[in-house]
Design brief:
Number of strands: 8
Structural class: alpha/beta
Order of helices and strands: EHEHEEHEEHHEHHHE
Largest sheet: 8 strands, mixed
Shape: elongated
Oligomer: single chain
Number of domains: 2
CATH class of the largest domain: Alpha Beta
CATH superfamily of the largest domain: Vaccinia Virus protein VP39
CATH architecture of the largest domain: 3-Layer(aba) Sandwich
């Protein structure tokens, strides 16, 4: 099979453009679309990237002009039938679509069990229902395309404890729990991690597995 071209990519639900800018290193032109004007306003400019405010179900891109369509950590919010209909219209004949998500973080053995317990058992009920689609790697999501293989990928960082706790505090589940008077869940987790971490400034590895549904 002939591979897809590298002339134009479309990043749907782009947020502030993290993936969009990465795509810009591989494509002549990249368009990032997001329904939030605030997110677009905070996107970092790049010479060959154009941002526009648009929902996934509209896109606002010319038909048959896109080689690659991506949606990173966003497809579970889309009206998928409408999004797929638009995607089919704007992609080129050999165009590829990729739904991307990253799984639950994995810490090193000394801290991982406590982290996983906090994620699943303590704040699990405060995640929105759509989170289950992310946790499954979009395995159960409707994907009516000829599926293509992809290499094993992961995000690997080294964080200290304040960086980890800062990341966790942004979770919608944590914010929902706190709004419902369950602040003690985060505090209890923080106290336990301080005992396990080995010094707040110590760096520990954190890995997020990347999952994709890739199709043509």
């Amino acid at each position: 099979m002939n591979s897809a071209g590298t002339e134009r990519a479309l990043d749907v639900g782009c947020g502030t453009g993290q993936l969009t800018r990465l795509l810009a290193t591989q494509f002549t032109q990249v368009i990032g679309v997001d329904p939030s004007q605030e997110q677009i306003a905070h996107a970092v400019d790049c010479e060959n990237v154009r941002y526009q405010c648009s929902p996934a179900e509209e896109l606002g891109v010319e038909d048959e002009t896109v080689d690659l369509i991506t949606a990173a950590q966003a497809a579970h919010w889309f009206n998928l039938p409408q999004f797929y209909d638009k995607a089919r219209r704007v992609k080129k004949d050999r165009g590829v679509i990729a739904l991307i998500s990253y799984g639950v973080a994995q810490l090193d053995p000394g801290c991982n069990a406590r982290f996983q317990s906090f994620y699943a058992d303590e704040i699990g009920i405060y995640w929105p229902p759509e989170r289950q689609l992310v946790d499954s790697g979009y395995a159960t999501i409707d994907f009516p395309f000829e599926e293509l293989p992809y290499p094993k990928l992961e995000i690997r960082l080294e964080w200290n404890l304040p960086e980890l706790l800062g990341y966790i505090s942004t979770w919608s589940a944590v914010q929902n729990a706190c709004n419902q008077g369950q602040d003690g869940l985060l505090q209890g987790f923080s106290d336990d991690m301080q005992r396990l971490w080995g010094g707040a400034d110590a760096k520990r590895p954190i890995v997020w597995p990347i999952h994709m549904r890739v199709g043509r």
